[in-house]
Write a structure and sequence with these properties.
The chain is α/β, with parallel strands linked by helices and 366 residues long. Helix content is 18%, strand content 21%. The protein is globular, with a radius of gyration of 19 Å. The protein binds delta-amino valeric acid.
Length: 366
């Protein structure tokens, strides 16, 4: 029996990872939490259904590009088992006309040490997405005697979990920014709700973004669940659609973070990094002015890189400015053609979930 699962941060040498799959992906029907993050001018407003097959095949090709780079660098790659995501779902508390996808895994699985926990997502359409990873979790459970297979408390996602008509069609960008600044988001605090991609793991410290997908109650829950770790709430008032920390504040190695120049981490939250001599560098501009068609995310997926070890990083192939910057910051850059996977939920970091990185739980902010 071997040690299969262990990871404490996003930069120690990566040895085993999960890469998502685009098969059967849906654009989900509108529901209280999702409509709030689809920009008003998006072509996705008001439509839902299976994503076009050609885009699914092309997205999968992109993920295969990533798998090849990882395997060429000695990383073991595991893949989920997609469900028929177009099925309607129901619980005692809600019904939804379909599920979504098993992209990206980073939103669903949180690896902390020898534990992988399935998240408590606020989207109803993602309620059963964890099932795509259960065959892998069972395999790790059988093969690694120390692996802790965990599910966070399931949110009920009744109507009480959301503020209704919170953003209507007419809301301006300025008003969105005011609400972000006031930490006033679509979810309520009746139960913990969180996406794993809002959690940045840095050894003894977890930095968790408060935004459209993760609430304050989740942070309180994390602090009680992991009493030996320190939980820090972070927020980025410059982001009108704050969702997931991994296109906003991205560590490359101990002591170095790239920061989204539009999203403005407040001074008092920067302090802990600066007090410990971490350098926070503004990320390079994205190479694109628009995201690809049918994409939920912003052009800042340019920053959404996957660090293989503190000297090596995979960056999307068309993101030439980001590549150049990382090169200047002393990283070896491996370009990967992945842009056509963006519509399925994200970039290189999003498309993966850590299984094993070398290293232990360190205190970077003593
Ligand atoms: O900038 O749209 C995308 C993050 C996806 N995990 C953004 C955030």
């Amino acid at each position: 029996m071997a040690k299969i699962v262990s990871s404490w941060n996003d930069w120690d040498p990566l040895k085993r990872v999960i890469v998502g799959r685009c098969d059967n992906s849906m654009i989900p029907p509108e529901e209280p939490a999702t409509s709030e993050k689809v920009p008003v001018d998006s072509e996705m407003r008001g439509m839902w259904g299976l994503r076009p097959l050609a885009t699914v095949e092309r997205g999968n090709e992109c993920l295969e590009n990533l798998v090849k780079i990882l395997e060429d660098h000695g990383v073991v790659v595991d893949r989920p088992t997609p469900l028929q995501w177009n099925q309607a779902i129901g619980t005692p508390d809600f019904r939804n006309d379909s599920m979504m996808t098993c992209m990206p895994p980073r939103d669903i699985l949180l690896t902390i040490g020898n534990e992988i926990m399935a998240s408590a997502n606020s989207f109803r359409c993602r309620y059963f997405e964890y099932l795509a990873y259960w065959p892998l979790m069972k395999q790790y459970f059988d093969e690694d005697p120390e692996f802790k297979w965990t599910q966070a408390p399931r949110p009920r996602l009744t109507d009480a979990s959301y503020k209704h008509n919170y953003y209507d069609e007419k809301i301006s960008l300025e008003e969105r920014l005011v609400r972000t600044a006031n930490k006033d988001f679509v979810t309520t605090e009746v139960e913990p709700m969180w996406d794993a991609a809002d959690v940045m793991r840095m050894g003894k410290d977890l930095f968790i973004q408060h935004g459209l997908t993760t609430n304050r109650t989740a942070m309180e829950w994390f602090q009680r669940y992991y009493p030996e770790l320190r939980v820090h709430a972070v927020n980025f008032p410059g982001d009108p659609y704050p969702i997931h920390i991994d296109a906003t504040f991205v560590p490359l190695r101990p002591g170095l973070i790239i920061n989204n120049p539009q999203r403005h981490l407040p001074e008092e939250q920067r302090a802990i990094f600066e007090a410990n001599d971490w350098q926070i560098v503004d990320a390079a501009q994205p190479a694109h002015t628009e995201p690809p068609a049918l994409c939920y995310s912003s052009v800042w997926l340019s920053m959404n890189c996957l660090v293989l070890d503190p000297k090596t990083v995979i960056v999307e192939a068309s993101e030439v400015y980001q590549q150049e910057q990382m090169d200047k910051l002393g990283m070896n850059v491996l370009p990967c053609d992945l842009r056509d996977a963006y519509p399925f939920g994200g970039g290189l970091h999003c498309s993966t979930a850590d299984v094993y990185r070398e290293g232990t739980c360190e205190d970077y902010f003593p």
